[in-house]
Design brief:
D-Maltodextrin-Binding Protein, domain 2, about 45% helix, alpha/beta, 2 domains, five-stranded mixed beta sheet, globular, 12 helices
Amino acid sequence: MTARALAALILLAVAASAAPAAEWPTRPIRIIAPSTPGGVADTFARLLAEFLPPLLHQPVIVDNRPGAGGLIGAAAAAHAAPDGYTLVTSSIAYHVIAPAVSPSPPFDPIRDFTHIAFLGGPPNTFVAHPALGVKSVKELIALARSGRPLDYVSPGVGTLGNLLFEYFAQKAGIAVQHIPHKGSSQALVDLIAGNVVIGSMTWSSAVGQIRAGTLVPIAASSRARVAEFPDVPTLQEQGFDDLVAMTWHALSGPAGLPNDVVQKLNHAVNAAWATPALRQRLAEDAIVAEPMSPEAVTEFVASEARKWGPIARRVMMSP
């Protein structure tokens, strides 16, 4: 074989290997939401399914896979082919808390994923059934110390709502009983019916009931008060300085995604998130979102794991 022929073969091989990434996507993209319909992960996945197709020129399909604190859906994405056609709405619940407290997590939240774009997230809130007559953290603590059994609902074991309320209870020195549900929708049904009187969940999940007056907001886990409800204090303002957190979500895929696919997705998400229509919808749910590079998202996930992983193990695995 001549040198010229060999060079031609090499060029053909390079072109063939680059072609799939350059042409991506050529078929529908699946985004796994490790939550039930109506959860925040599902909401973000459906926003992606609405706003990405015009930018990527392919349909985006949402695949709900709840269970095991989000580990089932996240693991399915981690073990998928790294071709850009199976992605996941990653989050603090699925990629920080659940792996930290699982005795045998099915993935490493950094090593086994390519983190692509930051989607943002709402703060969490403690809410009460109006019949309880509680409107502040101080009143909630006093009620618990009076001897009344205090049950609370969250979207599920291993969610930020679960962790925050258990951490709050430990710091306040009160006894609580967790009533886990499979998603925020079921938790809200139990709470609105008065079967359980306290809820700890995302602001996005509860805000409709807060606006309707069927639930009373006690506190928000944001650093600043939610603009729509300036009378609702933050947990930090009520003496819990380290209970500042949000149920953030990101778009992630399996480890080893081609860099040009990652960059194309990152640019598409950031462009979609910058549109006035979507920004208005996010603001209505008090969702804080800012564009990040894939490298910045990866470092953010790692920093959240360093912060909340040890707290989750200490709080949720204590006897």
